Amino acid sequence: xxxxxxxxxxxxxLLLFKIKKMSDAVGIIAFQSALLALAAAIxxxxxxxxxxxxxxxxxxxxxxLMIPAILYYTIRKxxxxxxxxxxxxxxxxxxLATLLLVAGYYVAAHLELPGTEHGQSYLTTSIMLIFxxxxxxxxHKKAIMQAIGLIVIENxxxxxxxxxxxxxxxxxxxxxxxxxxVSAAVIAVLSFRIHSTFDSLNTDKMQNLxx
Amino acid sequence: xxxxxxxxxxxxxxxxxxxxxxxxxxxxxxxxxxxxxxxHGSACLGGLCGSLAAILxxxxxxxxxxxxxxxxxxxxxxxxxxxxxxxxxxxxSVVLVAxxxxxxxxxxxxxxxxxxxxxxxxxxxxxxSMMAVVTVTSSVTFLIAWxxxxxxxFLLVMFEHEKEQVRTAGYIYFVMTHIATAFIILSFxxxxxxxxxxxxxxxxxxxxxxxxxxxxxxxxMCLIGFGTKAGVIPLHIWLPxxxxxxxxxxxxxxxxxxxxxxxxGLMRILVDFFGGGxxxxxxxxxxxxxxxxxxxxLLALAENDIKRFLAYSSTENIGIILAGLGTxxxxxxxxxxxxxxxxxxxALFHILSHAWFKGLLFMGAGSVLxxxxxxxxxxxxxxxxxxxxxxxxxxxxxxALAALPPFSGLIxxxxxxQSLLHLTFDSSGFWLKIAGALxxxxxxxxxxxxxxxxxxxxxxxxxxxxxxxxxxxxTEVPRSMRLGxxxxxxxxxVGGLWPSGILQLTGSVxxxxxxxxxxxxxxxxxxxxxxxxxxxxxxxxxxxxxSAVLLFGxxxxxxxxxxVVVDETWNCGTPLTPSMEYTGTSxxxxxxxxxxxxxxxxxxxxxxxxxxxxxxxISHRLQVQANMEAYLYKPLxxxxxxxxxxxxxxxxxxxxxxxxxxxxxxxxALIWSR
Lengths: 211, 674
Description:
Chain A is mostly helical and 211 residues long.
């Protein structure tokens, strides 16, 4: 079951480099977050920690419902064409993402962390998610996709906390969810502003603002 | 109640008044007249209390220690007023009293234009931070106070920020003062690294045992750091820009007092912590001092702007003070404590008299600015008839600057020259003697130029006929401004006529570090010889006065009473007009031409001709290009910019690039750590 969830997470992330429409990315995020909630719930049942279940519920509420809704709304309102813009072609970016996957696997295999009896399979995945999320932010030019990358990174971090240390204190968890929600909202607002100023969501246009 | 307790109470009172003065004007900023009174009243009272505390400490030779605030474990804000601190506290407080009184009238200049409540509050905060700088007891608290002082003075310089020139000057000041702070922080970090303590008390005991290389490094850092703040050439470039554009009351404080806090820092570290150091430290200080003095006064001589002249003259006087300090260190290194004492006394005395006359002169320049709205002497003239009080007080300050009797400027410069004479005759080593003689000659030349400079400024601005309408319509400044200037003028006379009083104050500093100064070396023997066979001063003076009286009598008897006829200036019959007057530019022209290669002078003469031998109009411009800036700072700035451009390729503001750096760093760190 664990391997299946991990594989689902990885494949869904890799799909981010193949998509053509931005709204697909939002769907991927929602799916990935749902898988994450599932992983957390499994872990909660295994270890009998109730706050993991609570975290799973919050993940569903915030990451699979609210944030995708906000992002989808923004995309609908700002960009009619919805096409993604990359710095390199989809094939090259997929190749680079695979390289990062290998690097992540190599790195994670040599990490010796305490308390990984349940979470060893997730540790590798989470590091890969962090790498791929950052790579999404590097690769894509549109502001919305920066938010997508950020959420992937956050998912990776969430996975590492709940697999290695069985989640963080609930207050911290709540704080992180709130942060994420606010940052998604801020990015949405900024996207509106960027769109109204430059008539595009491409962050390259913002280079002109430099002094 | 002991004297120390009494002094502590006065010191606390001073700090409290200044604190009140920096807060209450802000609260009453809506009612400017009230805010103005509150600010200047507290500043004046704070200055008075501070002077009293300082004099009590100096006379009774005690040390005050006050613990103010435990910031965190191991970092306590403590005030300690020992002899050295008290001396500088006195310098600050006395000038503060005069400036506070003066400001009360001067800020009327800004009525309807600016909110003077902020100026008043900042004035108090500035004074408070300066007092803190000279009395705190650990490197961290010193740096906090130092930085607050720098920032407040920057805000004060920028008070008229709507003018382009002010903003440029403020920016240069900001950059230079932070370069200075960086070097000072470095030197304190080295000290911390070797002693593992931030307390000055530990430094006093342990720093002498440091290896020589480290000591030298600290010395060089301090020299650059404090030298920049003091305005030593070639680190002076902020000074002639920032001082003229600040409000005049603030220029007076900055020039008379703030740059002295840098001298305090140097003395604290070199004399108090290191006990003098090797001889070459003194030689470097002496050389830097003499260079500053001569170059500063040459640049001053070229200036037609009164306040810029005064700012360059500050560079010159800081040079003289440094020369005194350097001589003291040289003597200390060669085990001649009494001579070292004499040289340090000279430096301290000059700090005091420079604070007084430079404060007075900046206030005088401010009065001229207040009355005529210009600082350019070529647009002034004839002010002595419109503003007799200001003219007289300005002349007092000017005579002190030119080291003329009977003002304290004479005594202090004389002491410096005397200690250099001792360096020439009593020091060991042939080259040192030569250097002493050379320094003496250059300092004497500096004195001559200073006199020439002040004659130019005073003569062009105050004498002859008004050149412009602004000068013609000038009226005498308000009473409080005159009173503020008069306070310092009186002190200059007191210092000149009763130097032993001042020497008592400086004595408690020099006694502590070098040793008792006997009067013989100080006044009775202008040039002591090894056998001690110099003539007694009273006999010399008696002979001089007697021969002068005899000569006068002889002439009177031979030729009778002379006749004086007062008449109009002869001008070939045409009416006198202001354009016939000698201008400031033409006054300094001959001297500048001698040094034109050194200074880099740009001279333009344009003649409008109608007939070959009868030109209609000749215009003459002289511009000092300041070779120092062209050859030293331009390449430095260019190199800095080129380097920044290189860095710009990495630091390019592209979000994706930054993220790529992050991923790269993360991968490398993870691989590294396994």
